[in-house]
Design brief:
single chain, about 375 residues, alpha+beta, five-stranded mixed beta sheet, 10 helices, 15 strands, metal-binding
Length: about 375
């Protein structure tokens, strides 16, 4: 794992809240003012419940002969899709979920032994890194792994850390393989070949890529309509692969007008994984494949767990609109940027990050370059 990505993921712009402000959400019986976002989330951010006349997030079977075309359409129209027959075993998904539950079920004083360092550390336990952009705290806890989990696992379980480390490492290996496969399906849907993107390595390899693993816990909340699990945001990645347990909470913003627009819940499907487009793929596709705005809401009675694999390019590679997607009528919308550089930009500008690297406005309505400038919730 290139060290530069650790530098790029530095959280100095996102100070970790001091330990005395780290509530044990599993024990809280009433929503504290520090976590109360509004009188009702439904008043300001109406949610579209899934129903017969509302489109749902596309589901793609990777065994389908038309998988590449289906993924390309999902990327262009939604920025997110679910995949099945992806090759990740149910056994491994169950084990990573059990590892996450084991971690988050620890007493708070034990979890804080693996807290992110206050001087801008990346790996370890803490609140959502984007928390510093909001006046209220989020109803969630997180644990980030960049590279090896060994150091923090030893702090959490001094005499019994091996199993946790083994599961994390296996999950990282299998996710890297799947990310490579998905990346080439996505690039192929754009007409980009191995010869066009040599930095990506041979088909389905992506061995030079960089990644982080993010485990998220959303405890049952006494007033879920007034709390926010994770505020709305786009990912800084090329793509993110998410496993969620059987409790709903992930919502994506569906752009448009009428009954097909608004927040749409991504329902947990047994064995399926959620794939969402990040800002770097938005840039690489010259805005054709938009990074999706998403958030996590919480539940009154059920605990939700999710595991996100955040995938990016090699640390030294500059991502820019691909030459095959640029011509006289479709100029490049963004300047070249490395993942580390973009992460630093996101840490300063958050939802204005895409705008800050944009060099011109779209012509002829090509692409989706809205850049989420009007986002008020995250």
């Amino acid at each position: 794992m290139p060290s530069r990505i650790s530098d790029g993921l530095n959280l100095r712009a996102h100070p970790v809240y001091s330990h005395n402000k780290q509530l044990d959400l599993n024990l809280v019986k009433e929503l504290p003012e520090s976590h109360a976002w509004t009188t009702s989330l439904k008043d300001d951010y109406p949610s579209l419940d899934l129903c017969n006349n509302v489109e749902t997030v596309p589901v793609v079977d990777l065994h389908d002969k038309n998988a590449q075309e289906l993924i390309g359409h999902a990327c262009k129209t939604w920025g997110v899709f679910q995949v099945k027959n992806h090759g990740i075993s149910k056994r491994l998904l169950d084990e990573i979920e059990s590892a996450g539950k084991r971690l988050f079920n620890l007493p708070m004083h034990q979890k804080l032994k693996a807290a992110r360092s206050p001087d801008g550390g990346v790996s370890g336990f803490g609140v959502a890194p984007i928390s510093s952009f909001f006046p209220k705290l989020m109803w969630s806890e997180g644990f980030t792994v960049v590279g090896s989990p060994l150091e923090h696992a030893r702090q959490l379980w001094p005499n019994d850390y091996t199993k946790f480390c083994d599961v994390i490492r296996e999950y990282q290996r299998e996710m890297q393989k799947l990310a490579g496969k998905l990346m080439w399906l996505i690039l192929g849907s754009l007409g980009i070949t191995e010869e066009d993107a040599k930095w990506a390595g041979p088909n389905e390899a992506f061995e030079g890529g960089s990644a982080a693993l993010q485990l998220n816990s959303y405890p049952a909340c006494p007033e879920p309509d007034r709390a926010m699990g994770l505020a709305a945001h786009t990912d800084s990645t090329i793509l993110t692969i998410l496993h969620q347990n059987n409790t709903s909470g992930l919502q994506v913003l569906r752009d448009g007008t009428g009954t097909g627009s608004g927040w749409v819940t991504v329902p947990p499907l047994p064995g399926a994984l959620v794939v969402n487009i990040g800002d770097l793929l938005h840039i690489l596709s010259n805005g054709l494949y938009p990074s999706v705005l998403h958030r996590a809401v919480v539940n009154r009675t059920r605990h939700r767990l999710s595991i996100a694999y955040l995938y990016g390019p090699p640390s030294s590679v500059k991502i820019s609109p691909h030459r095959k997607l640029v011509d006289q009528g479709h100029p490049p919308l963004y300047r070249p940027v490395t993942w580390s550089e973009y992460l630093g930009t996101k840490a300063k500008h958050f939802d204005k990050a895409l705008s800050s690297v944009r060099i011109c406005a779209p012509l002829n309505g090509f692409g989706d370059a809205k850049d989420h400038n009007t986002v008020t919730v995250g």
